[in-house]
Each structure stands twice: as C-alpha cells, then as structure tokens.
Amino acid sequence: MQREPKWFKRPAGALFGYGGKLVTFSRTDGANVKVLKVTTDTDLVSKATNLSNAMAQGNFVDFCQNKALEASAGQNRE
C-alpha cells in the first residue's frame, strides 16, 4: 500500500509544541493550520475568566467596583 486510504485521514486535530504553542488543523473547510500561543499564567487566566463572567452577566458595576477595591488594597500594601 503506497498511501493510506482517504477514510484514514483525520478531519481535525491538535498538537502541543514547545514554548506553549498549540497547533490545530482542520480539513473540513479546506486545509487550515493555526498556530496559537497557550497562556499558562494562572493569575491572567483567572482575571480573564472574571471579566468574561462579568460580560456574560452584564454585571459591569460590580466588576469595576471589585477592581477599584483591589487597586486601592494594592496601594495600601506598598
């Protein structure tokens, strides 16, 4: 057998690489390959999740008040 059968090819997939890279590919709408940088900073991920939740709930006032309290608490520590 010279080549694998067409049904054997994966329609999509993802692979992790060095340096926090994620490579995804898809054959559903042509040959697409994307190289993404994966963020592993837990503090940044937590902050992004909080912002995303505030946006989903439309709760911007509470989000901004919490950020203001965090900022003032940070100034008091210095």
UniProtKB/TrEMBL annotation:
It comes from the Eukaryota. GO terms for biological process: COPII-coated vesicle cargo loading; endoplasmic reticulum organization. GO terms for molecular function: structural molecule activity. One of its GO terms (cellular component) is COPII vesicle coat. The keyword Repeat applies. Keywords: Repeat, Transport, WD repeat. InterPro entries: SEC31-like. This is Uncharacterized protein. The lineage of its organism: Eukaryota, Ichthyosporea, Ichthyophonida, Sphaeroforma.
